[in-house]
Specification:
This protein is an alpha/beta fold. Strands 5, 6, 8, 9, 11, 12, 14, 16, 18, 20 and 22 form an eleven-stranded mixed beta sheet that branches. The protein contains eight helices and 23 strands. Strand 3 and strand 4 form a beta hairpin.
């Protein structure tokens, strides 16, 4: 593996198309001067990373891929195309519309860069700009509706590696496209992954992205998303957070065009000593825009969840309608859930609200279910199942519901079993 040095960054930049080198050099400059994030920073409150990016290396070749995914891929059905990324290097591409970013022409790169995660976001973003070499571009022409989803699987397999996959969705005017992203790594392998997902939805385009996060138990993952919507465009992001030692999603959605709409769904379940960290920012910058953020999570054992959400409504974004909801179950005494929703409203003709809840299972619901013949364990299990149904039924790809439900209830069963031991 290559060290994360100026020399490696220069080598990476020299292999990129000319239009992408500016992005790479800017990232290298930021990476050199930026420290690792600190919990004293507002955007990193409540978390201790326990790693230093300088200790990681950049794979120059992909490791051996994992066995085929037996959880998500078999249930999706027909797909429009698929791609596999191993250690940040695209190894397989099938289907119309998928383009390797590292070999894309200047015009495609220029379009793809329009919604990019800023290099100055943090040291992880800077590293991705400086050392990222590869990715997938899904470019949908104006007026094209792709009914079947694209499947993008990302694997991180090499111990000590910094893995930098990138997915860009560029949806033309009046187009429609959906993408399912699956993150995987083996248990017991210490690896750091920094995926970038960037979406540009043109006028009246509809873009749906579903992310299933199944990282291994020693993976540190910092996923960074930037989605931009044009006039009357609709964007949706649905994420299921299941794995990882530390798994973070930093999401920014910019509603730039009048009449645009953003939907954010989240389901997460922490066990053992996991930290699942969500920072979501929705910016309303035009009139008549709408957004709905709805996340539900549970934590058990000694795990921790963090949610910080911000809806910002600019002065010009009159007639905005925005909602933000985060609800959390705490299933063990040693578990923690932090929930901090925020509103920043600069316009004077809007409707918006937010809600947050953190607590244990409902004793009254348990009593009611027991009065109908269930024992306490079965009553609590039914409560947990019902808690997540409200999110699962909103996932656009209904085929994802059964495996995600099974994964969540499997985690709950493990937490209860360890609690009795």
């Amino acid at each position: 593996m290559l060290p994360l040095t100026k020399e490696t960054a220069a080598r990476v930049a020299s292999a990129l198309p000319q239009v992408a080198r500016k992005r790479s050099k800017a990232g290298a400059a930021q990476f050199e001067k930026m420290p690792m994030p600190d919990p004293r920073q507002e955007d990193w409150r409540y978390v201790e990373l326990g790693i230093d990016l300088s200790d990681a290396g950049l794979p120059d070749t992909p490791g051996a891929p994992m066995a085929p995914d037996a959880m998500i891929a078999p249930v999706i059905g027909e797909i429009a195309g698929r791609a596999l990324s191993v250690d940040g290097i695209t190894t397989e591409v099938e289907g119309e519309g998928l383009v390797r970013l590292a070999t894309a022409d200047d015009e495609a790169w220029s379009s793809a860069a329009s919604a990019g995660v800023p290099a100055g976001l943090d040291r992880f973003a800077a590293a991705h700009h400086a050392f990222g070499t590869d990715g997938i571009l899904v470019q949908v022409p104006a007026g094209r509706a792709v009914t079947a989803p694209y499947l993008f699987e990302v694997q991180a397999v090499t111990p000590g590696a910094l893995v930098l996959p990138r997915l860009v969705v560029d949806a033309g005017e009046g187009s429609e496209v959906s993408v399912i992203v699956v993150y995987r790594s083996p248990d017991g392998v210490e690896v750091t992954a920094v995926p970038h997902v960037e979406v540009a939805a043109g006028t009246n385009a509809h873009v749906s992205v579903a992310v299933v996060q199944m990282w291994g138990d020693q993976t540190t993952a910092v996923a960074q998303h930037h989605h931009v919507a044009g006039r009357d465009a609709a964007m949706e992001l649905a994420e299921a957070g299941i794995g990882g030692r530390f798994a973070r999603m930093h999401l920014t959605m910019d509603l730039e065009g009048p009449g645009s709409d953003a939907r954010v769904l989240g389901l997460y379940f922490g066990h053992h000593t996991q930290t699942l960290d969500y920072r979501a920012f929705v910016n309303h910058r035009a009139p008549n825009t709408t957004s709905d953020m709805f996340l539900k999570g549970a934590v058990g054992d000694r795990s921790r969840s963090v949610f910080t959400g911000l809806i910002r409504i600019e002065r010009d974004a009159q007639k905005t309608l925005a909602h933000q909801t985060n609800r959390n179950l705490v299933l063990s005494e040693g578990a923690e859930a932090h929930s901090v929703p925020n509103l920043e409203i600069l316009a004077n003709d809007v409707r918006c609200g937010h809600g947050s809840a953190v607590g244990p299972l409902d004793a009254e619901q348990r009593y009611y279910l027991m009065s109908r013949g269930l024992d306490p364990a079965a009553a609590d299990r039914l409560q947990v199942k019902g808690f997540f149904e409200e999110v699962l039924t909103r996932f656009r790809h209904q085929a994802l519901e059964p495996p995600l439900r099974t994964a969540a209830m499997g985690k709950y069963a493990g937490i209860m079993e360890r609690g009795r031991a």
